[in-house]
Specification:
Length: 430
């Protein structure tokens, strides 16, 4: 009887056509271009259906179910840690515990600053910096408070503190710092792309579509994000000089979710956060994730949103054809799910594949289609004379989930754009 009942349940599910749904969102394989990546997803969907025990949710169906919630997925995956730290630091500050609030808020600012390279909302970063500055001043460190306030002004030059919500001492110091930053000089930035109409964000604030000119930027570094049709994007830091115009021409070549961390453990954490975020906003029994593992083999595993659990990975050598190898691994995952779509206890794992976030154009296309609607904006005249080529800091492995670092002292000219991992990586100044 113990064997008959599960069999009857399985047969009933099959006859009813109510098989566990597995979402297919592409493979993280750098060698696959957009066309090959799309074909690989279709092959995985066919392999899932061919098991007779699972029902594939195709890429198009995933996109339809997520429509309108893409930004929620991105915010959950990319800003989650920073936002959590910001809330914790805010509570500590409001409890009049500035010494405890400072390190939490500064860590939140560091996380959110890294993530600003790939998100389109700079308000959480400005809030973390502002609260960190307030906590520093209350704790008696005016120099550190000034530094934090200066960064807030650079992010949002028009922001002023409301005396109803902030103590006079904080309002006065912030106003003094703001005046210092704005009187130090303002510059402008003009951004163009090969295909006009790409959306542009400066320091997390949308400024229009290319070609676009941004006036009144405080002197110093500013984070610029350019997003074209289908999620093709580039991000980098540009150095603005007082009284001068900085020109930047950005090439958009490949849809990408971000730059993978150098460390395998952090790449695994990036993968985990991304697929957990997908699971929070996609109603499905399981999500298939896979790509090349640390040994260069093709590896697959499942994530089940209801149990928030990953399955044990299965892997095989590529033999030069990662797409076919991946499809061939699907049957080995089929019995990891029960007939109700839950992950079997003996197939669960704490291990999450360390995947390359820059190498899945299918998933990037689902989540990053931020092409601006309507006609292309006309060029905005820039009266500031003496244009200089843009100088971008090379982004070397700074994951949008907060794992990377900026290359110290490496300045680059944004006239020849290379690399397809979503960063602006350009030739050095002679």
């Amino acid at each position: 009887m113990t064997l008959v009942l599960p069999l009857l349940l399985w047969l009933g599910a099959v006859l009813a056509g109510d098989l566990p749904e597995v979402a297919v969102v592409g493979l993280h394989v750098p060698a696959l271009d957009d066309t090959a990546a799309t074909e690989a997803s279709a092959g995985l969907a066919r392999a899932i259906d061919d098991t007779g025990r699972l029902d594939a949710l195709s890429t198009a169906e995933v996109e339809a179910r997520l429509r309108g919630r893409e930004d929620l997925v991105l915010s959950t995956a990319f800003l989650g840690r920073g936002l959590s730290l910001l809330e914790k630091g805010r509570l500590l500050y409001e409890r009049a515990e500035p010494d405890q609030a400072v390190p939490v808020l500064e860590e939140a600012a560091a996380r959110l600053s890294e993530e600003l390279a790939w998100t389109t909302d700079g308000r959480p970063l400005a809030e973390a910096l502002l609260l960190a500055g307030c906590a520093r001043l209350v704790a008696g460190d005016e120099a550190a408070a000034r530094s934090a306030f200066a960064r807030v002004v650079s992010l949002d030059p028009g922001r002023e503190l409301d005396p109803v919500n902030f103590a006079p001492r904080l309002v006065d110091l912030y106003a003094a710092v703001r005046q210092e930053v704005l009187t130090a000089g303002l510059g402008s930035l003009e951004i163009t792309t090969d295909d006009p109409g790409a959306g542009v964000w400066v320091d997390g604030r949308r400024v229009g579509v290319t070609p676009v000119a941004v006036e009144g930027l405080p002197v110093g570094s500013h984070q610029v994000l350019v997003v074209g049709a289908g999620g093709y994007r580039r991000s980098g830091l540009v150095n603005v000089r007082g009284g001068e115009r900085t020109d930047a021409h950005v090439a958009l070549r490949r849809a990408t979710l971000g730059v993978p961390a150098h460390d395998a453990r952090e790449r695994s954490a990036q993968t985990e956060r991304l697929y957990r975020a997908l699971g929070e906003h996609l109603e499905v029994d399981a999500i298939l994730l896979g790509g090349l593992d640390e040994q260069g083999a093709v590896a697959l595993q499942l994530y089940t949103p209801r149990s928030r659990t990953f399955s044990r990975p299965v892997s095989a050598r590529t033999d030069g054809d990662p797409t076919s190898v991946a499809a061939g691994l699907v049957p080995a995952l089929a019995d990891a799910l029960s007939t109700t779509g839950t992950l079997r206890g003996d197939r669960a794992s704490s291990q999450v594949l360390a995947l390359d976030l820059s190498a899945n154009p299918v998933l990037a296309g689902i989540l990053l289609d931020l092409a601006p609607a309507g006609s292309v904006a006309s060029r905005v005249p820039v009266p500031t004379p003496g244009a200089r080529p843009a100088r971008w800091v090379l982004w070397t492995g700074a994951g949008l989930l907060g794992a990377g670092v900026l290359a110290a002292g490496a300045w680059w000219v944004a006239s020849t754009v290379g690399g397809d991992d979503g960063t602006i990586s350009v030739g050095p100044i002679p």
